[in-house]
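FW: tagging you since you asked about this chain on Friday. Here's the raw sequence from the shared folder, copied in full. Didn't touch anything.
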Amino acid sequence: MGRARYVDDIEREGMWHGATVRSNIPRGLVRSIEFDPRINWGEFAVVTAADIPGKNHIQLIFSDQPCLADGSVNHCEEAIVLLAHPSRQRVREALDAVHIEYEPLPTVFTIEESERGDVIVWGTDNVLKSFLLEKGEVDQAWDKAVHVVEGEYRTGAQEHLYIENNGMIAEYSQSEGVTVWGSLQCPYYVHKSLVAVFGLPEDKVRVIQTETGGAFGGKEDFPSILASHAALLAMKSGRPVKMVYDRLEDLAATPKRHPSRIRHRTAVDAAGKLLAMDIEIATDGGAYSTLSSTVLSRATLHSPGPYVCPNVRVRSRAFATNTVPYGAFRGFGAPQAIFAVERHMDEIAAAIAMDPVELRRINFLRDGDTTATEQVMREPVILDKLLDRALEESDYYAKKARFARENSASAIKRGMGIAAFFHGSGFTGSGERYLNSLAGVDVTSEGKARVLVSSTEFGQGTNTVLTQIAAEALGLETTDLVMAPPDTRIVPNSGPTVASRTAMVVGRLIQRASTQLVDTLRDAAELSEVFTRDEFFAACERYRALHGEVVSLCRYEPPPNIFWDDQKYRGEAYPAYAWSVHVAQVAVDTVTYSAEVEEFWAVQEVGRVLNPVLAGGQVEGGVAQGIGYALYEKVLWQNGRMANNQMTNYIMPTAEDVPPIHVYFEEIPFDHGGFGAKGVGELPHDGPAPAILNAIMNATGVGFYSIPLMPEDMLAKLAASHAIEESVSV
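HL: got it, structure written out here
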C-alpha cells in the first residue's frame, strides 16, 4: 500500500548524510591519510579510528574485526575514514578528495593459498576455526568395504540481494547516549557492538528496527558496523546522521555466503549400505572471523546428511583470506554441506550401479537411529513418506524413463534429480542455552495485547505468526494483538531472528507467556475458565489497578533430553529437525550449454504449519534462491574485490527463470515448538542445488561438482565428454 517507511524515508531535523572512505587494496599498511586542500573540510565531520571512544572492534563471537581500520587494512572496501555533510551529494563527491597512501603486503585469496600457509594473514596458521566430529572407527571400515567412492565438491559465494540496501540513522547526546534506527535483523547484536564501540552502559544505547526490506542473513552481523559508523559521525557532528548504501557499495562491501570445498570418501557394502564417511570441509571466511565459526559448525553437523552410518569423521576448517568477510546467509553452512553429500550420493549410486533413490532409502535415518553426533532420533522421522510423495507427485520414474528415450534424438536433454536432507531448527549445540532468550506479552491500557520480542519482521512473516500464536493462547482474535516496536528500550532480548528459530523457540516462549498470563488473571482477577474478549480485558484492568502493569515474560527452557557437550562436540546438536525431499526436472540445451529448471517439487515436514500461505511462500522463495545458487549467481573476484557488483552483471533468476514450484507439507507437531512448529525458513534453500545438478547428470550422463554451474563450465566438460565418446566409437 506504500505506507511502510524504510530507513531512507525517515528524516530527522538537521540531519546530515554520511559516507565511507574505503581501502582500494586487499592488504597493506596505511602510511598516510591526506585531505585535498581544495575542499573546505570545516564543513564536514571527519572520523577515523582515533575518534572511537571505546573499543575499536565489532562485538561478535570474536573481536578481531575493527570498526575502522587503524594502521592496516586486510581487505578491499575496508572502512578507514568516515565523512558527514548536510548535502548527500557533497559528501559523496568528497570521498575522492581523501587520499590514502599504502604499503602493500602479500595477500591470500583462495582456500588453497590460505591452507598452504606461505603467507599468514590471520593468527598463526590462517585457520579461523576448526572442528573434529567423530563416531565409530572410520579407519577400521575401509577393509570391509566392497566399494569406496571419493569426490570433491565446491560452492561459490552468493550475494543476498535483499530489496532494500543497508541503511542506518544515528543520533548522539551526552545525556541520552546513542540511538540508532535501521534496517536490521538482530537489534541486540547491534546494541552489543555499540556498547563496546562507545564504552557506554547498556541503558545509554538504544536500537530501533525500521521497516526492513529483506535480509536473508545479510542484516545479521553487518548492521553492527554501519550503526557504529553512523553513530560515530553523529557524535562528531552533533547532528543526526543517515548512512544508506547504494547497490554498488552494498554489493562490494557487505558479507556473502561462504565459498566451500568439501571432500567425501565413503565406504559402502555390496547392498549399498553406508559403512564409513570421511569428510573434509574447508570454507573461505574472508579477512575476519565474524560468524564463520558457527557457519562452519552447522556445515559440519549437516555434512553426513540424513543418513545413518556407523563410522563418521568430519574434519572442518574455516580459512582466512583477504576478501570482504563472509557472513550469515540463509541456511548458514547447511546448503554447502547438503550440496556435497547429496551430489556424492548420486556419484555413489552411479559407481555401484544402483538407483539413487533406493540408495538413499536404505540409508535413511529412522526412529531410534543415531546421527553422527550420536543424537538419538526420538522425534518421528518420516523420510520414507516424504520420498514416496515426492516421487508420486513428480511422476519421477515415468518421466525419467521417457526422457531417457527422447534424449538421444534431441539437442535438448532432460533429466530428473533428487535430494533428501534435513535442517536443524534453532541454534546449534548449546547456543539456545547460551542465548537464554526472554519474551512475553503485555496488555496496554488501550485494550490491546502486545507481543514483546526483539525478533524482527523483514518479509518472512514474524509478526503474523507470533500474533497468531499469542491470540490462540490468550483466547483472543488476531485483531486484538499488536507487535511491540522492535526497540531495545521496550522489548526483551528474545535472541536473533536467525537459525529457523522464530516460530519454534520464540513462538513457544510467546505461547507459554500467554498461557501464564491467562492463569495469572484467573488466580488474581477472577477471570473464569471460559471467557469472552470483553471479560479478558476487564480482568486485565482489574489486575492493572492492583499491580500497575499487565505483563507476562518467559525465559527459554530447553526440551528434555537435549544436551550438547561443547568439548567433545557430541550430543543433541538441535532440539528438532525439519526434513525434506526435493525433485528437479531440468532441460539442458547442448547447443547453448545452458540449463533450465522446468519444474520443481518440494515435500517437507516442518512440524505444525501455523500459516500455510507464509510457509508455502518460504519454500517457494527458498527454492528460487537455491536455483540462483545452482545456476546463475556467480561472484567474480579481481584482486580481492568483487568485480561484478551491480545487477547488470551479477545475474539472479528472474520470474521467467523460476519454474512452477509444487509445495507439499506433512505435519508432525513438535511438542516444544510454538503450537507444534519447527523451522521452515532455511530448509528450502538446502536442496535445490544438488537436486538440479543431479538432474543435469541424469540428462547428460556427465557429473558436475561445483556451483554455480555456468554455460562455459558445461561447454568445457560436455565437449570433452563428447570427444571421448567419439574417439571410443572410432
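FW: The chain is about 30% helix and 25% strand.
HL: agreed, and The radius of gyration is 27 Å.
FW: great, closing this out.
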